[in-house]
Design brief:
This protein is mainly alpha-helical. The chain has 11 helices and no strands.
Length: 244
Amino acid sequence: MEYILLYMIGICATTLGTLAGGGGLISLPAMLILGLPIHSAIGANKVSNTVSSFSSFYHLYRKREISLKEAIWIIPVSLGGGVTGGFIASHISGKNMYIIAIILLIFGFSASFKGKGNFAGTEPLKMNKVSVPGLFGIGLYDGLFGPGQGTLMLYLFGYLNIAYLRAVALVRIATFSSCFGAAISYISTGKIIWPMTIALLLGSLSGAQIGVRIAEKLKPKYVKPILRVVTIGLIFQIFVDKVI
């Protein structure tokens, strides 16, 4: 029964994560309720996200929604930010980190009402004075905290006038790059409970394919409202779990 529940959790969390980020809103609390140790739950998330994010990226790559040339430089930038964030995290108290996370999510939420980006653009992602610091900063944020990385990245791509499907593909390859290293770490330290992780992974693979197919049909005007709802959920979860 637990394996079926984990499979369903993987479907729901990764469908949401593919569309708007914030899949951790569902998966991590649900796994903790099922009794998984915290490190095993996080490790299962990292392993399943590594595989599922690449599968959704590859689907869009095959359909020529994204090119490797456009996406490949995200990997070292996101990794560099993640490593830096992990180093900084060791020097900041947990409570202060999550206060910063709430501030950043509120900023992204507010900017979504003021920004002109509506995910209907045709611009490719280029290395410039906005994209590189923005992606490095979000990678740093991911290394520091984790929750909301995909959501913040979608806000950035919307601001850069990138089409929604291209933005989804770019977020998924960035998620793959950041989760891959973390997954290796959790596997090497023996934190993975493989039967439960595989159940979550299979659900995540299904959710990634469901999410990316919904994304293909989703009208750009609906993206920002979905992002705002996810952002409010993330802020509430972080505030209740980590600040109060």
